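Why should sequence recovery work at all? Because a backbone constrains its sequence more than one might expect. Tight turns favour small or flexible residues, buried strands favour hydrophobic ones, and helices have their own preferences. The token representation captures these environments compactly. In the example below, the structure is given first.
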């Protein structure tokens, strides 16, 4: 859908300069995602990298590939640690940038090595461990944090493994342990089997929406997806005290690592599942209010410690933050005009 449609003195009328900025950005990955996410390109058709720029030439990806170990990992022998720069976190960045196992060398083979390393931390029942290599064997007597399994399955699906039966097992496992309220129990670490927390984890429910988007053949229209969306929507833009995550709704960081509470991304996923609810509308208004008055772009508002990629300067325009926000705002505009 072109931006010219739905132009009737609406806020999104002023977004074209930001789109133009992204389309001429030096990063091939930014240009690719702009076409796919904002201009209606087919992301699925791009898994084979046909008609795509060579993402292996993107400076951020070049830097990541240089740091990958021979076993496919980043940061050491654990999957999740060291926090913010291990394989788990690097995969989230590569997935956001559009990398795929089907891309030509060196990127495609690098993704494959990383996937082999990552799947080694998955037990036979589908759950992913943070540090324990399970090699598809018997699950531990303690259950891992469920959001690790959700996010790992999301990254791997986005990287070209959506139809892999191991991702399917992760989905089956997650559906089997979902609470009746649409969330998942969490103790902040490994938990006894059948543990039930007083309140469900908001972060896990929000992450599940991203997984559902990556595996629509498994979770599209699924009751578990709807329940997770309804649970998340009740707490969207609200203080989640007691629900196992900090109040981070109003910040736009980079990298965000598919963080379970992201103003723009969670809002977009809720919009896709539930439509323009009152709280989703509130998120759109806040995103529009965060637009820089001079250039019509969005700035990074923070970063995690020791990220594996250059985070950009806080307060300066950031292409990935701008992309994330524009994707939400334009999705909302399209729903409103349909």
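From this structural description, the recovered sequence reads:
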């Amino acid at each position: 859908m072109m931006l010219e449609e739905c132009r009737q003195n609406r806020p999104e009328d002023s977004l074209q300069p930001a789109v133009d900025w992204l389309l001429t950005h030096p990063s091939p990955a930014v240009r690719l995602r702009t076409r796919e996410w904002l201009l209606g390109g087919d992301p699925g058709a791009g898994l084979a990298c046909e008609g795509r720029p060579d993402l292996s030439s993107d400076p951020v990806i070049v830097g990541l590939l240089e740091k990958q170990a021979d076993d496919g990992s980043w940061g050491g022998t654990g999957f999740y640690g060291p926090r913010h720069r291990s394989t788990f976190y690097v995969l989230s960045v590569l997935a956001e940038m559009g990398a795929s196992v089907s891309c030509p060398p060196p990127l495609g083979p690098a993704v494959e090595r990383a996937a082999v390393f990552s799947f080694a931390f998955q037990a036979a029942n589908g759950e992913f461990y943070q540090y324990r290599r399970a090699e598809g064997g018997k699950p531990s007597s303690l259950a891992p944090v469920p959001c690790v399994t959700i996010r790992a399955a999301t990254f791997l699906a986005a990287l070209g493994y959506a139809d892999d039966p191991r991702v399917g097992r992760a989905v089956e496992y997650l559906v089997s342990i979902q609470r009746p309220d649409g969330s998942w129990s969490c103790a902040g670490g490994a938990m006894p089997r059948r543990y039930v927390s007083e309140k469900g984890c908001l972060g896990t429910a929000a992450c599940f929406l991203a997984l559902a988007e990556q595996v629509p053949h498994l979770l599209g229209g699924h009751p578990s997806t709807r329940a997770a969306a309804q649970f998340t929507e009740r707490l969207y833009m609200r203080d989640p005290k007691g629900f196992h995550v900090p109040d981070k709704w109003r910040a736009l960081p980079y990298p965000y690592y598919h963080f379970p509470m992201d103003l723009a991304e969670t809002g977009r996923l809720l919009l896709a599942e539930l439509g323009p609810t009152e709280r989703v509308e509130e998120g759109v208004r806040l995103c529009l209010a965060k637009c820089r008055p001079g250039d019509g772009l969005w700035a990074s508002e923070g970063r995690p410690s020791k990220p594996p990629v250059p985070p950009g300067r806080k307060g300066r325009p950031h292409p990935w933050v701008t992309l994330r926000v524009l994707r939400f705002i334009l999705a909302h505009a399209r729903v409103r005009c349909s």
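A few observations help interpret the result. The two ends are 11 Å apart (CA to CA).
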